UniProtKB/TrEMBL annotation:
Organism (species): Noccaea caerulescens
Matches recorded under InterPro entries: PPR_At4g14850-like_plant, PPR_rpt, TPR-like_helical_dom_sf
First and last residues of every PPR repeat: 57-91, 158-192
PANTHER family attached to this UniProt entry: PENTATRICOPEPTIDE REPEAT-CONTAINING PROTEIN, TETRATRICOPEPTIDE-LIKE HELICAL DOMAIN SUPERFAMILY
Keywords, sorted A to Z: Repeat
UniProt cross-references to PROSITE patterns, sorted A to Z: PPR
Protein name as catalogued: Pentatricopeptide repeat-containing protein
GO BP term, example: RNA modification
């Protein structure tokens, strides 16, 4: 039975508790997936449920961290991450992008730098998805130097990479650097053009 609401999930959970089956599969996976990721879910419920499991699955923490990163309370992502580390789990290539997204939303520069260091230590520094998330974070922080350094060190780049650097410069009003990136791009899309136009508007250089 697939639940369609938290009310249904609560009833199912209560029944399985009485039967001693609340931690059994596939219920555990479905509970975490629905409550953390569904638009009808409740990520706080997912976090409480995961914290009580005697053998919590590693993917469960990624579900919860992802859910909090998209919620109205992205700061809870950090709490979940700390709890994940306390329980002996290590972050993976799916964990970092959502953590970085939350730090971008929170504008937490200090933790952003710490998380970048963690990415390096855990060997995910050349994961393209994670690097693009880092670029986006530094762009949001208006940290052009860190963004450029990371970009130059990346062995692989895609359109998202270029757009992230371009958008970061545009957000800072640095249209000279933004235009240089724009001109160097082999491929452009609507995001590229939109970032460039926004940069000119913010800098007041409408005629460019």
């Amino acid at each position: 039975h697939r639940c369609k609401s938290m009310s249904e999930l609560n009833k199912m959970h209560a029944l399985l508790i009485t039967l001693g089956l609340s931690e059994e599969e596939p219920f555990a996976s479905r509970t975490l997936s629905f409550s953390a990721l569904s638009s009808s879910g409740d990520v706080d419920y997912a976090y409480r449920y995961l914290s009580k499991l005697s053998n919590p699955p590693a993917f469960g923490w990624n579900y919860v961290i992802r859910g909090f990163s998209n919620s109205r309370n992205p700061e809870k992502t950090i709490r979940a991450y700390i709890q994940m580390l306390k329980t002996g789990f290590s972050p993976d290539h799916m964990t970092y992008p959502f953590l970085l997204k939350s730090l971008s939303r929170l504008l937490n520069r200090k933790l952003g730098g710490c998380l970048h260091s963690s990415v390096v230590k855990t060997g995910f520094v050349w994961d393209l998805f994670i690097c693009n998330s880092l670029l986006h974070m530094y762009g949001t922080f208006r940290d052009r130097a860190s963004a450029r350094k990371l970009f130059d060190e990346m062995p692989f780049k895609n359109l998202v990479t270029w757009n992230s650097l371009l958008d970061g410069y545009a957000k800072c009003g640095d249209v000279v650097s933004a235009r240089q990136v724009f001109d160097d791009m082999n491929e452009r899309d609507v995001v590229s053009w939109s970032s460039m136009v926004d940069g000119y508007v913010k800098s007041g250089e409408y005629n460019e």
